Amino acid sequence: MQSAKKLYIETFGCQMNVNDSDTMVTLLRELDYEPVDNPSSADLIILNTCSIRAKAEQKVFSELGRMKRFKTREKRVILGIGGCIAQQEGEKLLRRVPYLDLVFGTHSLHLLPDMVRAAEKGERPVQNDFLDPEARLDLFPRKDVEGGVTRFVTVMQGCDNFCSYCIVPYVRGREVSRRSGDILREIGEMADAGVKEVTLLGQNVNSYGLKSVDEPDFAALLRSVSAIEGIERIRFTTSHPKDMSPDLVSCFAELPKLCSHIHLPAQSGSDGILERMNRGYDRKDYLARIGALKAARPDILVTGDMIVGFPGETEEDFQETLSLMEEVRYADLFSFAFSARPETEAARYPDELTRREKQERLDRLQSLQRSMTMEMSRGLVGTIQEVLVEGTSKRGGQLFGRTSGNRIVNFTGDRSLVGSLVRVTIVEAMPNSLLGEKA
Ligand code: SF4
Predict the structure, then answer these.
(1) Domains, in order of start, for the chain
(2) Closest ligand 1 atom to the C-alpha of 162?
(3) What 3 state SS string does the chain have?
(4) How would you class 262 by CB atoms within 10 Å of its CB: exposed for 0-12, middle for 13-18, buried for 19 or more?
(5) Measured in angstroms, how far is the CA atom of residue 370 from the centroid of ligand 1?
(6) In the structure, what pLDDT confidence band is assigned to residue 200 with cuts at 50, 70 and 90?
(7) How far is ligand 1, taken at its centre, from the CA of residue 212, in Å?
(8) Cis ω on the peptide bond leading into residue 403 (within 30° of 0)?
(9) N or C end of the chain, less CB within 10 A?
(10) From the CB of 204, is ligand 1 less than 6 Å away?
């Protein structure tokens, strides 16, 4: 009996890419490939890439260089690239990387088995066409429903917002909302397989259904997911403030299964910069939505994204960002220095700040956030939190899980608790996690 061929996938960037990589594993099983976690033994190596920032792109090209050594005269290894850089660069990649065998874009996942078959015959296929939204409705990632306690479920893809700094609309295409029937069916199967928590995923998840006449909007979808037996917790990411409707906010007051955490990127605290970013809201709007969410769910924890050093950002603008952080009291924040992305509007703006000036602002912002995160974590010491146990932690012999507020908790307990909601007393706060004792 011939042993399975070995597949190694390296995934860069967002959870959407992680989900796509899971789908690649499912698709390539039909060609008898099984995943391995070391490229040195692989017959097929795939880099699933991200191009959200210049740094991410540089990382991919150095990784392609590293993978070259696995292609030897003795062993024919196929090297492929997928994801946003493949979508962005397409054919050019074959010229730039002569030892690359195949290139598939963000709308070509379904073609991967045929492309690998062609590469096995020595061809160098490239596919990075954009598909019409209708054509993509049947192409949403579907992966084998295996157990596990938590799962991500893609509910929509693409983005129509064209924030001036963002490459996503150019590499992921127009927004498409998946059929709600398919979503609910997949989550039902997951619940039957023992999954307790689902995270609904999309670049702009809360604009779900807004463009389609047959589908419910996001608040209605959440209510339907909440009715699925066996699912005990629901999360979603990433939201856009302009689509945070009053009805969606009321879901936090209405649906106990909806977790007490919202990821709501502001990107800046300055109205002038928000306008140049084409974000579609101002500081007052943003704070009004945060206020409404906190009124609907008083223990809600908020996380966000911030960009510093956007073209034209003055020290005053930057101070507006810091003061917004103080006002919102984020539990945590993803923060980046502006880097111009190809094709985007902001790539045409004069980028006056030096790399050092941007880094200096980023350091100030991250130091403020670290102190606020620690203060928030210390505030949880002595409280009893409901933790969904996801598995055994790296901290010898302990279990780990997350609070409804999405904080990681480690505590001592029996493995049989994996998959259960356990009441845990928080006894210590660490920079990125909490230590607890079973209550
Ligand atoms: S909402 Fe803006 S930042 Fe988010 S994916 Fe769309 S264009 Fe990019």
Answers:
(1) 5-132 (3.40.50.12160), 145-259 (3.30.750.210), 384-438 (2.40.50.140)
(2) 7
(3) CCCCEEEEEEECCCHHHHHHHHHHHHHHHCCCEEECCCHHHCCEEEEEECCCCHHHHHHHHHHHHHHHHHCCCCCCCEEEEEEHHHHHHCCHHHHHCCCCCEEECCCCHHHHHHHHHHHHCCCCCEECCCCCHHHHHHHCCCCCCCCCCEEEEECEECCCCCCCCCCHHHHHCCCEECCHHHHHHHHHHHHHCCCCEEEEECCCHHHCCCCCCCCCCHHHHHHHHHCCCCCCEEEEECCCHHHCCHHHHHHHHHCCCECCEEECCCECCCHHHHHHCCCCCCHHHHHHHHHHHHHHCCCCEEEEEEEECCCCCCHHHHHHHHHHHHHHCCCEEEEEECCCCCCCHHHHCCCCCCHHHHHHHHHHHHHHHHHHHHHHHHCCCCCEEEEEEEEECCCCCEEEEECCCCCEEEEECCHHHCCCEEEEEEEEECCCCEEEEEC
(4) buried
(5) 25
(6) very high
(7) 20
(8) no
(9) N
(10) yes
Close Cβ partners of 47 (under 8 Å, ≥ 6 residues apart) = 9, 10, 12, 60, 63, 64, 67, 80, 81, 82, 83
From the CB of residue 284, how many other CB atoms can be counted at a distance below 10 Å? 8
Span 70-128, pLDDT tens digits: 987 778 899 999 999 999 999 999 999 999 999 999 999 999 999 999 999 999 999 99
The overall pTM is greater than 0.90: yes
What distance in angstroms lies between residue 324's CA and the mean position of ligand 1's atoms?
20
- Joined together, the tokens standing for residue 170 give 């150019």
Question: What is the C-alpha to C-alpha distance for residues 167 and 64, in angstroms, rounded to an integer?
Answer: 22
Assigned token pair, 432: 């990125």
In the block, which residue shows the tokens 């010491």?
Answer: 381
Q: Using CA atoms, how far apart are residues 173 and 286, in angstroms rounded to an integer?
A: 26
Distance (angstroms) between ligand 1 centre and the Cα of 335 equals: 15
Q: Which amino acid makes up residue 355?
A: R
Average pLDDT, the chain: 94
Nearest CA to ligand 1 atom 8: 166
Q: Which residues contact 416 (CB under 8 A, 6 or more apart)?
A: none
Distance set, CA 146 to CA 20, 138, 143, 197 (Å): 16, 21, 9, 13
